[in-house]
Each structure stands twice: as structure tokens, then as C-alpha cells.
Amino acid sequence: MSTPILPFDVWPPGSNQASIPANDNALRSEILAGRVISKTTTAQPSGAEGAIYIIPAGATGAMWATFTAGDLALFRGGTWYAFAPVTGLVVHMLGSLQQWTGSAWEEMAGGGGSALQSICVAASDETAALTVGAGKVTFRMPYAFTLSGVRASLTTAQASGSLFTVDINESGASILSTKLTIDNTEKTSTTAAAPPVISDINLADDAEITIDIDQVGDGSAKGLKVYLIGEPA
């Protein structure tokens, strides 16, 4: 069950039970000032601290399944908090401004939201067979970046064997709770049976990023590229 995001709670002067409305108001402020990651993700993610989502119809997961479609959900302190929008409310989603019409979230025409960007990095040449290993490529973030998605692609798909698996690390720590995979005979992670789950959406300015290949199949895969999708923080 969600709590209305507006109006903010108030309490009588001298009340000794102010902590609950004060905490709720802090969560409301964080959502209103923050950036929504997605309004189409249906599977409850593991949750990065401060992550904000719009709950879509058909949401699944221990907590998301109990929320109402359209709710704004914030992950804080190990749990999800849901707040119901009010008609006319505008929130910043990565790449656009979204307004609640009373029944649906719609992108505002000419809303001036920051355009999505992608950082594409080659983690190999185009012809050598890819092998398991850490630090296939190392680079530094040119500015602070808020992730909304990650992808991987191959120039040559592998035919068979173990699932081709890629990890992305920030300063030596993985940013993925579910790694990037590319299914056999496919060239892109966008068609993977198991989509990646981002556990760290906030990449710091000048952070060292490394790309690992955790698993390969028959050794026929070639030409790995990795894509970071989001917008400047």
C-alpha cells in the first residue's frame, strides 16, 4: 500500500511523535528532487541505495507486487517505499520529464529533459577469439554519470557452450548484481534470456571502469563492445 506523495505531512507543535512524518517527508523530497530510472521495469530489482522507479502494471517481487501501478518507489535502507502520485505531478526520468495524468505517466512534449547518452567502449579487437579474464579494458569516467542501462555486443557470435558473460566494475567493485550475458548464436545482450541488473547506478567522475569477461563458450566469440547508457549526473 502506498502513501500519497503530496501533501507533505504536518504535526502539531510539541508532538513527540514527529519522527514518522519527518521521515516520510524526507523520502518524498528525495523522490521529487531525484531521477526516475525506469517506468517499464516489471521485475523488482535488488535495489541500489536511492534508486527510484515508477511501478508499471504487472510488477513482480516481494514488495513491488503489493504496490499500485503508477506508484513512485524509492529504495532506501534495505527496503522499498511507495508513494502515490497526484494529478499533474512532474518527475524527472532519465531522458525525459514525466507527468501523471491521473491514470498514467506520460512524457511531456518539449519537456527539456536531459537527453540519454551512451559511452561505448571496445574491450577487444575485431578478429581475436575472446577469452576469460579481468580488466580486458580500463578507462576513466569523463564526468559523473547516472546509469539507466548497460549493454554488450559481439562482432561474431559464439555458436555453443557456456553463456558468454561480462562484468563491469567501478574502482574494482562490480556494478552489476546480475551480469551481462549474450546468448549463444546472438550478437547482443538485449536479447538475453536473463537481463542484467544494475546494483550501482551512480558512476563517479574520474572513476576507474574495468570490463571483465567472466565466462565464454566454444571460443568463437569475437569483437566485444560494452555500452553505458544514462545521463550526466
Distance between the termini: 31 Å
Q: For the residues shown, what is the average pLDDT?
A: 91
Protein structure class: mainly beta
Which regions are unreliable across 5 or more consecutive residues at pLDDT < 50?
none
Strand coverage percent:
35-45%
Apparent shape: elongated
Q: What is the element string, with H for helices and E for strands? A: EHEEEEEEEEEEEEEEEEEE
Please bin the fraction of helical residues.
Answer: under 10%
CATH class of the largest domain, named Mainly Beta
How many domain modules? 2
Radius of gyration: 20 Å
Count of individual helical segments: 1
Q: Major beta sheet, specifics?
A: 5 strands, antiparallel
CATH topology of the largest domain: Jelly Rolls
The CATH level-2 architecture of the largest domain is identified as Sandwich
Please count the beta strands (DSSP E, at least 2 residues each): 19
Overview of the molecule:
The protein is mostly beta strands and 233 residues long. It folds into two domains: 3-107, no CATH class; 117-232, Sandwich (Jelly Rolls). It is 6% helix and 40% strand. The protein has one helix and 19 strands. It has one helix spanning 19-33, and strands at residues 3-4, 35-36, 52-54, 72-76, 79-84, 90-93, 96-100, 105-107, 117-122, 133-140, 145-156, 164-170, 173-174, 176-178, 180-182, 197-198, 202-203, 208-215, 222-232. The strands form five sheets. Strands 10, 12, 13, 15 and 18 form a five-stranded antiparallel beta sheet that branches. A four-stranded mixed beta sheet has the order 1-5-4-3, covered by helices on one side. A four-stranded mixed beta sheet has the order 2-6-7-8, covered by helices on one side. β6 (90-93) and β7 (96-100) form a beta hairpin. The longest helix has 15 residues, at 19-33. It is elongated and about 70 Å long.
